[in-house]
Amino acid sequence: MSRPLLRVQNLKQYYPIRGGVLFRTVAEVRAVDDISFDVYPGETLGLVGESGCGKSTIARALLRLDEPTAGRIVFDGADLLAMDRHALRAIRQQIQIIFQDPAESLNARQTVGAIIQEPLVIHNIGTEAVQRREVAELLERVGLPASAADRYPHEFSGGQRQRIGIARAIALKPRLLVCDEPVSALDVSIQSQIINLLLELQQELQLTMVFIAHDLSVVKHISDRLAVMYLGKIVEMGTAAELYAAPVHPYTRALISAIPVPDPVRRKPFARLAGEVPSPISPPSGCYFHGRCPHAVQQCQVLQPELLTIAGQGESPRQVACHLSEQFLVN
To answer: Within 13 Å, how many C-alpha atoms sit on residue 113's CB side?
Structure first.
C-alpha cells in the first residue's frame, strides 16, 4: 500500500464570534469539526455536501490560507502546520488551488499574461523571456490562444476565465491541486468542458486532486473516492462507485436520490429530509443528523457516532459514521 500524499488528522476550524463591550469570544462557529482523511498519489478525492458544511473551509485550511484551530495536515511526510513562513512558501509550489468564482479570483487590473506569470515571478523561476514562453504554453494547454495574454479577464466568458485560473494553478507544476467548486459558477454546458480539461491535465501532469462540489452528478465523473460531509463532519467515505450504487448513511442516501434522472423508468422516489440544517454555532447533541433522520433512535440523540470502517481495506475502505450502518449495509 502506497503512502498518502496528503494526510489530514483531526482537523478543526472554529471561528470565534465576539461581542459585548470588551469584544470577547461569546461563541464559536464549528465550520470543520474534527475530520480525518487521506489522499493517495494520483487519485481524486471528492468532498461533497450541502452549502455551509465546511468544504471550502477545508480547501483554505489545506493551503493555510486560514490557520486551523487544531489538527495536523501532513503533505508528503511534512507537517504543514509546523512550518514557518519560509518553508511554507517553498512547499506551496507543490500545492495549488482553483477557486470557485474566476471573476473574483482574477485581478481585474492585470492582464491575463501577468496573472499567469505571477507565480513564476514570486518563486523566481526562469528569466522573463522564459516566463513569457511558459505563459503562452500554459494558455494553449488549457485551450486558449497565446494572444489572450495581452487581454484582461473581463474580456473573457466565465468558462474562459476558469481556464485562466487553471493555467495559473498549474504554472508551478504542482503535485496536489485543490479544486474548490471550480464549475459551480459556470453554465451547465461549460461544466463538462472544464471537467474534461482537469481530467486531461491530471493524466498529463500526474496530479493528485481534492475536488470540492455540492453537485453529486458533477463530482461522480472525476472522483475516485468520495467523502460526504454534513455540518463540518464526514459522515461517509468510500469509492465513488460504491457510494452511488449503495449509499449507507441516510444523508448520503438523500443526496443520491436528489440527483436528477432523465429516464422516468429508472427514476427513484426522492428522499425528503425534515427540518433544516442545524446551526454550526450550536450543533445538536449526539449525531448531528438525528433531527432530520427518519431512522433515528434514542442512541442517535445522545451518542455521536464515529467514522468506522464497515467494509473494504487498504486505500479504499468503506467508512460510515452511523449507529445503524450495519442495518443499512444489509438493506
So the answer is: 16
